[in-house]
Design a protein that fits this description.
This protein has 164 residues and is an alpha/beta fold. It has one domain: Rossmann fold (3-Layer(aba) Sandwich), CATH 3.40.50.300. The chain contains seven helices and four strands; from the N terminus they run H-E-H-E-H-E-H-H-E-H-H. It has a four-stranded parallel beta sheet, with helices on both faces. Helix 2 links the parallel strand 1 and strand 2. It is globular and about 45 Å long. The model has no long low-confidence stretch (mean pLDDT 92).
Length: 164
């Protein structure tokens, strides 16, 4: 969690490391529905599966529509089904904290996923705005802190190969 850059990047690094050790990894990307460079790279690794649940582009909290909610709810249902099949060692709920913050998914729904996780599975949640309650239910929490970012200081937008 946190306002700094690198939450998804850290989760993808963990996925890459785990895949290198022969673990199977599933990444459910909530609120995402477009091409990112990592999709091309990770798609070449047979024991990593990525699925997106969202539209291309970014939305603001005040722009949430019933369609966004339906996509996130469908994604959560799919994520649960994948977890229950027991085919993956590591499961990542990318941007799930933002999905909760935007009201696309309720916090109790995610806590239920956390509680129903098989003991032999690692579950990773990413996204800013993780609540104190969600943090309480987690075993490990890292906060990414924005010290300085070229977007805010120089107005530099996301760059191919760096942020997307």
């Amino acid at each position: 969690t946190g306002d700094g850059k690198g939450k998804t990047t850290a989760a993808l690094g963990l996925a890459l490391r785990a895949a290198g050790h022969g673990f199977s990894v599933y990444i459910g990307q909530f609120m995402k529905g477009q091409f990112y460079g990592e999709l091309s790279s990770l798609g070449k690794i047979s024991n990593i599966t990525i699925q997106q649940f969202g539209d291309p582009g970014c939305i603001r909290k005040e722009e949430v529509t019933p369609k966004h909610i339906a996509q996130a709810q469908k994604g959560l249902k799919e994520f649960n089904a994948v977890m229950k099949k027991g085919l993956f060692d590591i499961l990542v709920m990318d941007e799930i904290c933002v999905a909760i913050w935007f009201g696309l998914i309720s916090e109790p729904q995610v806590i239920d996923v956390m509680a129903s996780k098989p003991k032999n599975v690692e579950l990773v949640l990413t996204g800013r705005k993780a609540s104190k309650n969600l943090i309480h239910h987690a075993d490990l929490v890292t906060e990414m802190k924005d010290i300085k970012h070229y977007y805010t200081s120089l107005g530099i937008l996301a760059r191919k190969g760096i942020e997307n």
